[in-house]
Amino acid sequence: MKKPDFSKLVRKNVRELEPYHAEDIRCAVKLDANESPYSFNLEKNALERISSTALSRYPDPEAKGLKKAIARKFGLDTDAMVLGNGSDELIYYLIMTFGGPVLYPVPTFSMYGIIAQALGESHKGIPLDKDFDLDLDRMAAYIKKFRPGLIFLSSPNNPTGNCFSTDRILKIIEMASGIVVLDEAYQPFSSKRGFLSLLKDYKHLAILRTLSKIGLAALRVGYLVADDALLNEVNKVRLPYNLNALSQAVAERALKGSFLHDVTSAIVSGREQLYEALSLLPGVRPYPSEANFILIKVRDAEAVHKKLLGQGVLVRNMNSAVRGALRVTVGTPDENDKFMRALKKAVGGK
Ligand code: PMP
Questions:
Q1: How many angstroms does the Cα of residue 312 sit away from the middle of ligand 1?
Q2: 154 pocket-lining for ligand 1 (C-beta < 6 Å)
Q3: What whole-number distance in Å separates Cα of residue 329 and Cα of residue 48?
Q4: Is any atom of ligand 1 closer than 6 Å to the C-beta of 212?
Q5: Is the confidence at residue 83, as pLDDT, over 90?
Q6: Which pTM does this prediction carry?
Q7: Could you read off the pLDDT of 270-296 as tens digits, one per residue?
Q8: Cα-based torsion angle of the residue sequence 169, 171, 174, 180 in order, rounded to the nearest 10 degrees
Q9: If you average pLDDT over residues 129-141, what whole number do you get?
Q10: Is the CB of residue 157 below 6 angstroms from any atom belonging to ligand 1?
Q11: Per-residue confidence at 52, pLDDT binned at 50, 70, 90?
Q12: Which of 210, 219, 295 to mutate to test the pocket of ligand 1 (most atoms within 8 A of CB)?
């Protein structure tokens, strides 16, 4: 049978997409994906005990136990939230629920634009200003003219690492006619307070968070906190059992002890040391970070990226988003040392 020409069968918006490319390069020092270098270890026999509770049954569709554990751990005054298979899935649901145009600053997390495109919604990235802060005038003009259904603000922002200034975020929230999503994936590492307390004042605000950056990326757990009515709309498009039983059970265990807190503090102090070391290295400009990674500028990002790889160190090449930039995730002290030694050689021309 003749193979169909899929490029003709596929929807136009999907035809224009490329599959998301997550690097799968085996490296001694892997600092490219903003994961935690510290892994949560289940106690002995825990998996046997978890799986003895009937893998033949669907998981709790509401993941009630996990919602309670998240609310308790992060001091939320409600366990009303929608959980996602990673916050990626929640971005999907939000765009599916509220539609576009979808507005976001650039550079930022690429999935806002990719998912909008996949769902056939128009999307617009407005460049950040020279300090990597929101360009309020340009965003305001777009909001007035196109009335976006959704605005995504990642603060701290990936890949720049900074928080946007609070007054600019507030102005965007005030002027928006659609939903504003504050993506706080990196909030646990930030010295700023975050926006959860504003939810009671702004019913069109939603806060997106994840357990991925604080040691549980493999479980794929993200959560969306917002007004009940907003969550109710998102729940209409959520797949019935989107969070599998093993992730629910393991995440609940991990949220019990002090593991997540300890991991976060270790990463923040590692980040401060790494920033200090980077600032002292000629030919390298690190940008201050409120996240678990640091954006650096070097003279030739492509060459330095390659030279690091040659020494077994994988960082993220951000050259196409920010000219001359690489993004390095904070690792263990030993990984940070290895990265610094390799970087010294790479920028030193060796
Ligand atoms: N938001 C931001 C800003 C991110 O950087 C990431 C991960 N790179 C995510 C959301 C998605 O995280 P996850 O799907 O693992 O929860």
A1: 25
A2: yes
A3: 33
A4: yes
A5: yes
A6: 0.95
A7: 999 999 999 999 999 999 999 999 999
A8: -30
A9: 97
A10: no
A11: low
A12: 210
- CATH class of domain segment(s) 58-254: alpha beta
Q: What is the pLDDT of residues 317-343, one digit of tens each?
A: 999 999 999 999 999 999 999 999 999
What does the domain layout of the chain look like in residue ranges?
11-34+259-348, 58-254
Domain 11-34+259-348 in CATH 3.90.1150.10: yes
CB-ligand 1 contact for 158 (6 Å cutoff): yes
Per-residue tokens: 182:
């504050």
Q: Where are the alpha helices (DSSP H) in the chain?
A: 6-9, 12-15, 46-51, 64-73, 87-98, 111-118, 136-146, 166-175, 228-235, 245-254, 259-279, 301-310, 333-347
**87 CA distance to ligand 1 centroid (A)?**
6
Q: Output the DSSP codes for 302-318.
A: HHHHHHHHHTTEE-EE-
Tell me whether domains 11-34+259-348 and 58-254 share a fold.
no
* Ligand 1 and 185: CB distance under 6 A: yes
Residue 350 has pLDDT above 60, yes or no: no
- For 184-223, the pLDDT digits (tens) are 999 999 999 899 999 999 999 999 999 999 999 999 999 9
